[in-house]
Structure formats: C-alpha cells, structure tokens
Amino acid sequence: MFLRMGEVTRLANLNEVLYMQRLHSASMCARDLTKIQKHYAYVCDAARRRAEGQPEIAFDEFLIEQRARPFWQRAAEVMDVHALGQYRRALGEVLTSHRFRGYARLSWAAMCSPRLTFQRIARAIRKVIKRRLPAEHVNTLPGT
Question: DSSP letter at 35?
C-alpha cells in the first residue's frame, strides 16, 4: 500500500511514534518470517516493474522466477531471513531477563548476515548524525 501511495504522492517519516509493535517468538511475524519476506520481495518487484512500465506478474510466477536464481543468491536470502528472525528474538531477550542469551543471539545474527548488520549500523549512525546536524545539512547525508 505504501509503495503504491509513494508512486502518486510524497511520503515522509514522522519523528513522533504513533504505534508500537510487540515482538515475541510465538507471534505470527516470527513464525511466518520467510513467507512475509517473500511477499515483501514480490511487492517490491511489482513496484519496480510498474516504475519501468512493465506489466506486473502473478505471485506464483514471481516464486518460479525466484527459484530459478543461482543457488548462492537463494542461500544468501535464507541466511538473511534467519538472521532477521534471530535479531528480532534477540531484541526481546535483551529487553527481558535473558540479556546474555540476547547478546549471543545478536552476535549470531551478525555473523549470519553481515550485510544486514552493516545496514543497521549505518542507519543508526545516520540517525545520530541527523540529530546533531543543523537541518540544512541533513539532506546532504548519503542514503537520505
């Protein structure tokens, strides 16, 4: 929905938190993370196709295309999804009484998907820099 809205108007992030999301190991997001990530990849592919003037394809066709990718790309995707699941579980553990296990899980997630870890670190650094820079310099930061 947000990708389609972004195609017809400008979107922006608010500094104010308007909703909270509860994560725990039995939640639907944790159980079905692989399925959710496939649907997310599909809507991103559909948005890319619309932007390029190509027709969208059905979800089943998209899955067939995804299976035709080289093994190493599919393996990297599986590791990214696993790392994301471990990261989410780790956050819950760090915030409760299982801190040591949470930090160990965070380390495991970082080893499983260094690319995602570096992206998270870069986002965190950009947030800190944005808070410290005058407003006129914020738009010159890479990735903003």
Answer: H
**Cβ–Cβ < 8 Å for 103, 94:** yes
Token output for 130: 């944005």
What's at 24, amino acid-wise? Answer: H
Residues spanned by the domain of 24: 1-68
Can you tell me the distance from the alpha carbon of 126 to that of 143, in angstroms, rounded to the nearest whole number? 8
C-alpha to C-alpha distance for 95 and 112, rounded to whole angstroms: 22
Examine the domain organization and report whether 25 and 81 are in the same domain. no
Nearest to 119, CA basis, from 83, 89, 90? 83
Model pLDDT, residue 59 = 95
The structural domain count of the chain equals: 2
One domain, residues 58 and 84: no
Residue 141 has a pLDDT of: 53
**Separation between Cα atoms, residue 109 and residue 60, nearest integer Å:** 30
Sign for the CA dihedral angle at 86, 79, 127, 104 comes to: positive
The pLDDT of residue 90 is 84
Under 8 Å CB-to-CB from 89, ≥6 apart: which residues? 25, 30, 102, 105
Helix (H, G, I), strand (E, B) or coil at 81: helix
Low-confidence ranges of the chain (pLDDT < 50): none
> Global pTM?
0.62
